[in-house]
Amino acid sequence: xxxxxxxxxxxxxxxxxxxxxxxxxxxxxxxxxxxxxxxxxxxxxxxxxxxxxxxxxxxxxxxxxxxxxxxxxxxxxxxxxxxxxxxxxxxxxxxxxxxxxxxxxxxxxxxxxxxxxxxxxxxxxxxxxxxxxxxxxxxxxxxxxxxxxxxxxxxxxxxxxxxxxxxxxxxxxxxxxxxxxxxxxxxxxxxxxxxxxxxxxxxxxxxxxxxxxxxxxxxxxxxxxxxxxxxxxxxxxxxxxxxxxxxxxxxxxxxxxxx
Length: 259
Description:
One of its GO terms (molecular function) is beta-glucosidase activity. The chain is α/β, with parallel strands linked by helices. It has helices spanning 16-22, 38-52, 63-66, 76-91, 107-113, 120-136, 152-157, 169-175, 187-211, 241-254, and strands at residues 56-60, 95-101, 142-147, 166-167, 180-181, 224-228.
């Protein structure tokens, strides 16, 4: 979303950030329709990476590009684009580090069952991850399932500054936010829980089907898989026990509970 551009090209359908941006909720009214245009300029981009001396590149796969409706038929054009990008990186000796979900849930799943708020997301994410492991795992050795599941539920389901633009009535009133009013004492936890279940399901699939088992005519991919957390850090204002305890609570709440 932030890099590829080509939002309506190559069989891709909208993600929740496309909808959010086109509702003119970004401060300068920009969208991701073009972004950095890597979809069309990936060869130039990879050559620049090589010239800079980079040996690794982290990028995200657009679920809406690979499986346009969030589930069902795979889009060959989407698969081909990522094959082209990965092959170009490998040609220059640059290791791809691939994220499967970076805030950009397919809008179709948000419309159908409220996205991260429904347990159905786990099965659909697992099926999407399986496609990616199968199509790209012979060359991709570093996988990230979900980007910052400790932050997305807060920004999207509590503060309302990320899609799907949900916040509490009290917050909307006090800050003048234009957002959908929900019970934000519950919703962020439901979204976060389903993200973690999706992560766990994809990791289990990868380990059993691709990482450790040698399949007939298909060798073990031998890769690594994990998750990305936003590591907000805290320090106690003093060495008093109450301040130290407050720091530990904050770290437990935002980071340690997701380990």
